[in-house]
Structures are given as structure tokens and as C-alpha cells.
Fold each of these.
Amino acid sequence: MSKMNKRDTIPILFFLAAGLIVLIQMVRLPVGTFRQPGTAFFPILLTILLLLLTVVLLIGSLRRKVVEQGSLFGEYPKKIIPALGGLVLYGLLLTYLGFLLSTTLVLILYSRLAQCSWKAALTISVVCSVLSYFFFRGYLKSPLPQGILPF
């Protein structure tokens, strides 16, 4: 087996740990079924997908030889921790702040990490959060955490 690239493996393990923490937090919410999804149904599916992709990255990192030019994460490894922090924070605050506020805050964080202006970050975050809220509530009839908002 070749030497693993520590610059890749350490962030991947961090992703794995963050995904597991979020999954543990999400199973505390009502999951429901495929026909009647609960509050945590889709976040759990997305977290499981994140974990599966992280395992694939980990296996690839462990099998790949060390490359001197850089790492899998390119020139932005310092953005990984805030991105993962946002994911963990989202899982922790979802029941307290509710779907709309939690989703908007995390999307603002991700938009700013992608170097969007504040105006663009706010616009993207609010539009995506509201559209996803109406998709889940209106179309899928899925209950979402209300949090501190009256709706």
C-alpha cells in the first residue's frame, strides 16, 4: 500500500466525523417513511450520501500515492473547517431556529465561502431557502422544524 496523503486524509476524516455528528443529531427528529417523510427524512438521506462520498474519498486518499504538487482539496483547505462547521451547526440548530432560518444562515456561510458578495449571498440564501421550504412543505407535504418563526 502506498503512503497516504495526510493533507487529504485529515480533512476527509474531519468530514466523516462531522457527518456522523450530524446524523446522530438528525435521528432525534421524526424520520417518517418514504410515503410520509418526517422532519429528518431528507436531511438524513443527504447526510448518508455525504458519508458515503466521504468514505469513497477516504479510500481513494489511502490508495493514492503522495503527490508533491498539492492535495485533493486544492488551494482552499482553510475553507473546509468553516464549511464543516456550518454543516454541524445546521444539524444542531435546525430544531431550535427552524428550517428557514437554519438553512438561510448556512447558505449565507457557504455563499460567502464561495466569495459571493453579501448582496448575492443574502439573495441566493433567502431564495433557495424559501423555494426549498415551499417544495418540502407544499409539494412533498413534509413537516419541517418550525423553530422560532410562527410558520
Amino acid sequence: MTLPPSDFPAQPGPDPLPPGQSPPQYSPDGRWWWNGQQWVPNPQLGPGGKSKVAAGVLGILLGDFGAHKFYLGQIGIGILYLLFFWTLIPGIVGLVEGIIYLTLSDYEFERRYGNPQAARQRPFF
């Protein structure tokens, strides 16, 4: 026995866009999206991609021990943070870096830290 369509529970659909806003348009290859004025690169996490939220939270909560540096692949600086954690300076710097990571645009974070080799070549943050 099948029920008529009116007896099915309503499925929640996608959130409606505000009036006057169209859904984002992507290029056929998915690497660019139209923001209403120009084509902007669409950052995509690669095989070694890192999450800016994870890096930011690690920097804020465990920055004293350099957890965010180890996460981003900057092992040398992470060890330096571990050596000096007792001074509380790495904790302050980790807090600032965590905020910086969270305020970077997705594209800029991906450009700086998306590639493991590029992340290792960064001098500090």
C-alpha cells in the first residue's frame, strides 16, 4: 500500500537564500566561483590539506606546546615551542596565531598551508 504524496512528512530543504541573492555559480571544473563581481579561486583541500579551524583551535588551546605548528607540519618550530613552553611566551604567540588562522580567508589559508612543502618553508606563521 502506497501513501499519497500529501501523507509523507515534509523533508527539510536547503535554507532559502535572502531576497535578491542568487546561489553561487561555479566554473565547470569547480576551481572558480562567481561572487557577483568577479571570478574567485575556489580553495579545495588537497590530499595534505589542513583545516584552518583545527589549526586555530589548536593554536588557542594548546599553542603553549606548539600543537598547531606540529599540525601544520612545521616540526622545527613546534619543538622550539616545546622547549620554551615554561616561559608562557609560546602560549601568547599561539593565541595570536590561532586568531590569525581563524581570520584568514579560506583561499589565503589554503595558499599558505594547504601544501605540506609550502607550510614547512614558512619562516614563522
Amino acid sequence: MAARGESQGLQVALIIFVMITVALGVTTYIFHNSAVKLADAKKVAEDSARAQQASSEARDAQNKLLKSLIGYKVLSEAEQRPLMSELATKDAALKTEIDEIKRAWDEDMALFTGDVDALGGEGWTGPENWMSLPDYLIQVNQKRNLEWSAEKTRADTETSQKVAEKQAADAKVAAAEKGLEDAKTGYDASVAEYTEARSTWTGQTASLQDSVNAKNNEIKKVSDEASKQVKLLESEKNRSELLAQGLKSENTQLKRKDYDVPDGKISWVDQKSRLGYINLGLSDGLRRQQTFSVYDRDETNHSKAVPKAAIEVTRIVERHLAEVRILQDDLKNPILPGDLIFTPSWVPGRRVHFALAGFMDIDGDKKSDRTLIRNLVRVNGGVIDAEATDEGELTGEGMTVHTRYLILGDKPTEKSDAKVLQAYGRIETDAQQKGVETVSYQTFLGWMGYKGEVRTTQIAGGAANEVGTGEFKPRTPARGATGGAY
């Protein structure tokens, strides 16, 4: 019985072992199958991710090239080549698409090459991308309008002259015809008298013939005079055309005029009263409170030189004479008659145009002094066309080819607000495209003769005197005087 019980136990154990082995085999197969499927799914996902990454990189390269063509962020040829290679490698379809767009861009830009050459004029440029195309077309339209207006004025003047000449010629012809008619009447009277006095007929006939000849000569003279007037009119027409061409050339030269030349000079100065006179006045469009930097009379490159003094207009005296007060000078190198004066914010008879951008801290207190720069421009007769504010706003009507200076402050860094950085970049790019000269605000202040709220002048021995803002007793230099009082 004991042996039988042990045999049954072994059988049960064997059965259980077999069942467990079968269960383990089935479970192992199921898990292996799942692992194989997961590995395949992982490979598919990795392949898809690589394809998506390549597609994303290709589209990013395409976007950069498209932005360059549009003009948002222009790339050089050297910068475009690796992007084109990346497109060809990662997405041939996008490469084909950007090639078609590039061909269209080349065709569009080629359309305006002829216009640029025909319009001509130094300083004239055509569109460089699609974003600059509207501004170019506006410039072309404005130029055409000006040419049309000038031509219409010239044609109207020529027509008026021709009408006047024709009226004068008609009057002379009418007078000649009347004279001829009078001669004919006299001739008829002479024929009537022929029957009365044969003896006097020959003399009267000769006299009448002389009269007719004289009238014919007068008619010929009138005709010759009319021909001369026609030739004179043609000559005036040619002269008007040459004059129009000269004015056009002069306008081009004025547009390219280097403003960095002296605006005038010191006519007379008195250090004791700290007053002086300059050779600018009412006829030059000068205004009170206009400031000038002063340079030695022999200075030939004052735009880069350090000014010796600063003056401010206090009174307009005559057409070409104004009183000034000395804001700052150095008695070791005093102001002398004949010294040159200069300011970037004023040109005789015109208003100078400016633009502003960047952070401007004059006194080092970490606060913007933009308002001071703006007021200096405006009080001296300048015009602010455009401004990128400290908050990143673009204000004003925008720069044009007539904008003279872009006054730049400190450039925003990568840590600055994106809006501020973008506004600064846009106005700087616009200045480059329109050929606007850029100067730092420190250089501008030096040109203006600005030395801070307290302006001082150095005296012998190194001491400095503060120049107040009180009234000065007017003093006028003697007529014809060329020297200064010291």
C-alpha cells in the first residue's frame, strides 16, 4: 500500500510538471512573439522619425531661402549654396520647387534692370528683392511724375512763346498788307491822273514803282524777321532743354551733396563779453538757438576733427549776419575771426532729415536720454523721419533717400526684448538700402557742440568758468571790421 501511494504521488507530480512545462512553453512563445513585434514597430518608428527630421530640416532650409528671396533676411550666395545642397539631398521635390521660385525671382528682378539703367542718376538703385520692389516702384512713379511735370511746364512755356510770336508776326503782315493796299490806292490815283498830265506820268509811275518795291522789301523784311523769330524760338527751345538737363544734373548733385562741409565762419568775436558774429543770417534761413561747432580756419576734415569751441545763435541781425554767444571754448586755442562753423542739423535754405535707433544714455545713469537727442534735432530745425523707440515701436513716416543721418545708440543684445531687436534691425537695414549715413549719438553730440547741462570754458591756468544763460548786451561789430576783439 505504501508503494502504491508513492507511485500515485509521482504520477501526480509528473502530471503537474508536464502541465507547468507546457504552460511555460506557451507563455515563452507568446512573449517572444510580442518582443519581435515591438522591435519591428520600434524600427518603423525610428525610420519615420528620421524621415520626419530630414523633411523638417529640408523645409527649414527652404524657408530660409524663401525669406532671402522675399527680402526678410537676405543670404549671400555662399550662405545659399549649403542650403541648396541640403535640399537636394533631403527632399528633391522641395529642391525643384525652390528652383522654380528662384527662376521666377530672377525673371522679376531682370524686369527692372532696364528701368534702372534708363532712369540713371548716381545714387539711383533698383529693387534687390520682393520686399524692396514696392518702394522702388514708388520711387520710379515719383521720378516719372516730376519729369512729366517739368516737361509739361516747358511745353506750356514754349506754346505761350510761339503764340506770342505768331501774334506779332500776324500784326506785321497785316501792317504790310495795309501798306500794300495804300500803295495800290495811290497807284490807281496816278493812273486816273494819266489822262490829265502825260508829261508827269513817267515820274509818277517811277515813284509808284519805287513805293511798291519799298513795300515789297518791307514785306520781305517782315518775312525774314518772322523766320529769324522761328529760328530764335527753336534756339530757345534747345536752350530750355539744356537748362532742364542742367537742373536735373544739379538736383542729382544736390542729392549727393556732402553735407560735411563748413556752414559758415566767425566774422567777429569778443572774449570779454563772450559774444561774436557769424556770416549767416535771415537770408540763409537761420534761427535763434541754432548751435554750431567751431573749428580752426585751416581744418580740412572737420567731420572727424575735435571742435575747438561751441556757439549758439542769440539774435538774427541782418541778411548774412547773426549774433552768437560762446557756449564752450579753450583760451589756449581761442576762437578767431575766420574760424569755420559746422552743424549736421542745418543746411542753408533746407531742413536736414534724421532717423533715430538704439539706447542713448548720455550721462551714464542707465536711463534713456532719447528725448534730449530728439529735442536737439528739432530745436535746430531738423526733421525726424523715422524712429525705432526704446520699446521696439517704429514711428514716423519712414526714411527716404532724402534722409541724411541715422543716429545710432547702443545696439540691443540677444538678451534684449525681441521686439526691440527686430525694430533696430529693420531701421538699420532700411538705412543701408536707402544709402542713409549712420553716426553714433556721441559723434552727433560732438558735432552739435553739446557738452552737458553745464557748459564750461577753460581759462588760463586751467580753471573753468560756467557759462550762464542770462541776457547779453547786444554789441555790433564796426562795418568793414575783419579782426576780433580780445
Amino acid sequence: MHKVVGLTLVVLLVSPAFGQVMVAGVAAWVDDEVITIADVEREARNQLASAGREYSPEELEALRPKLNQEVREYLIDRKIRAHAVLSTLTEAQREGLEDFAMEKQNEFARMAGSRAVFRAQLLQMGITLEEHRKLIQESILFDEARRRASPRGKTPVSPAEMRAYYEDYPEE
């Protein structure tokens, strides 16, 4: 059974070593994992980019509350489903998943030109190598959960794909 706490909370953290105040926003908790406001915003940007449409600043501002809510719910669902599949894996399968994620990161680093450049790109997006590796694993587990839940021969369609199709073909 998964415990989900959905909320939006901004936490101020003080770094005694540097005397700095950092803002860390918590959008939700799933079991012992936190979904941050930055996670929600990053996924919302990805979904908007995959829609293949440009939005004016006014349109983006109007979309923001609804999109952030939908994305938060999607990320909660993704974590719950990924955890469910992960709980069915053997230790060897878990190690294989970790190895695959490492291979994918190495592939991304080669495409970026070097591991340092890739790491800098991730930092620009606000994530570490470890967080990126976990996102790869979670994505694989979520896809497997969707595959298991769909009827044979049917490929599940993501909300972003549905929304993009709807916007591209309004007459249908």
C-alpha cells in the first residue's frame, strides 16, 4: 500500500556552512520519496515542449495552475506505478535496471561530447547524475507498469500525446 501525501509546501533551509538560505518546494510525498515543485515545473516544461506548440506568456500564465496540478498528479501516479513494478523485481533484475540506466547515461554523455558537458547540462536542468539515473529507472518501470495494465497489442498513450493530438486535430 502506498502512502501519498499531496500538498504544496515551501521549506526554507539554512546552510550553516555557508550561511545561505535555500528554498526547496515540496509538491507531494509518495512513500518516502519527495516530488519537488522543481520536478513539477521541469515535467510541465517537457510536456509543453512535446506538444510542439508555442504559447504566448499570457497563455502560459493561464495554463500554469491547471497544468501544474495535472503534472503533480501524473508524477504521483508514475511514482506509485514504478514502485509497484519495482517491488516485483528480483535483485538481479534491479541490478540490471541500474546497469541499463548507467549505460543510457554514458550514451547521453557521448552524445553531449563528454561526461563533464553532460553533467553541466543536467545541472542547468537542476538535477544531478544520480537523480537523472533514478528518472531513467522510474521511466522504464512506469512504462512497464503501463504495458502490464494495457490490453495485449494496445500501446498506451500518454496525456501529453493525447493533448497534442487533440490540439492538432480539433475537428476530430
